[in-house]
Write a structure and sequence with these properties.
- The protein is α+β, with helices and mostly antiparallel strands and about 400 residues long.
- It folds into three domains: about 70 residues, Arc Repressor Mutant, subunit A (Orthogonal Bundle); about 150 residues, Nucleotidyltransferase, domain 5, CATH 3.30.420; about 160 residues, ATPase, nucleotide binding domain (Nucleotidyltransferase, domain 5), CATH 3.30.420.40.
- It has a five-stranded mixed beta sheet with strand order 7-6-5-8-12, sandwiched between helices. Strands 15-14-13-16-17 form a five-stranded mixed beta sheet, with helices on both faces. Strands 9-10-11 form a three-stranded antiparallel beta sheet, with no helix packed on it.
- Strand 5 and strand 6 form a beta hairpin.
- Helix 1 packs across helix 3, helix 7 crosses helix 14 and helix 9 runs antiparallel to helix 11.
- The longest helix has 25 residues.
- The radius of gyration is 22 Å and the shape is globular.
Length: about 400
Amino acid sequence: MTAMHPRLTTTTRAEATVFTMVLTQGPVSRVEIARRSGLSSAAVTKAARPFIEAGYLAELEATERTGPGAGRPASPLTIRPDREFFTGVKITDDELIGVITDLRAQPLASAHRRLETSGVEGVVAQLAELVAELLAADPAYRERCHSLGLAVSGDVDKAHGMVRYSPFLSWRQVPLARLAAAATGLTVTVENDVKSLTVAEQWFGDGVGASSFALVTVGMGIGCGLVVNDRVVAGSHGVAGEIGHIPVGGDEPPCHCGGRGCVEAIAGTAPIVAGVRAALGDPTLSVNAAIDAAHAGNPAAREVFARAGHAIGLGMAAMANLFGPERIIVTGDVPGLAAYDLFEEQINRSFAAQAFGAAADCRLLLRPRTFEQWARGAAAVSIQTLFSREEAPVVTSAGDRARPHGMRA
């Protein structure tokens, strides 16, 4: 790679279609792209040309023949994954987890930084230090990394780069994209962490090839990302998919959102630990000790996890009844999935009992994920925003909002 190549983004819908198809489904021939997309062969060739010239796409040796009599060789197009790099950071209540990825969102370097404070200024300062550390790992990263994706739990307004409410950080109305862009010099996209992970699954994981699927996360909170007709659903206010706040427990217990009986108030890590502590009469019990007690067969502890599984199963069934996904990917952080076997049976039972008709046939896939994978999701959002013809603006280091389309030198 050379710095002489211009940096490109998609400028037309045809370019976005061709590039993303090669990125997520390649290697793939122009003929196959035309067949899948409905574009003409000439339109595919025109759309691919600038990306080949700029080093984003490459032509492989011909592996199939096309045309009348199948006499003309076709050269599949493939991504050159190291043409551009992306930084992704997952922000938790006490830690920053960052990765550098290539164009296929494959992590190449990672770093962690414990947060000394959850205050916005302190977090942004430590974020800038983490990003600098990641970019310093290889001169190529600093040269060819221009985008930073941030994943934050809670209510995130991606279009304006605003964290409207993050319960675990106690943030409200934080213009995170603008602050991070000024601190790092990169173009910044901010997204809800569950939606970020959903984008990674849609483009590079178990969601590839599924026009509609759901991602359910189990851990500190209970989240859900939705893909319908090949698009991540955000809703008018950016909070679509919040199955953690579907009421399944009647009037109890109260939830931090202000509602009562929410899935998250029953099945999140904190209420599970509180329930096991109360059941065992030990107010100092840690999350790992609670899991160990249930694994050891303590009936009171196991009942707490069974109740959590019931709540999650009901929430998943309500979601499946509403939009009928092809598959549901269940994932989460380490504490949540370390206990998954404790409520898996109850999840499946409650889901099957409450799902309506064919919705109960939806495949459930368990996919453990580390926090680095959540950071990878943040990077995947940057990749998607840059190349998918999304209309949401991103924030540049100059502090302005710009559409992510057009050629950049």
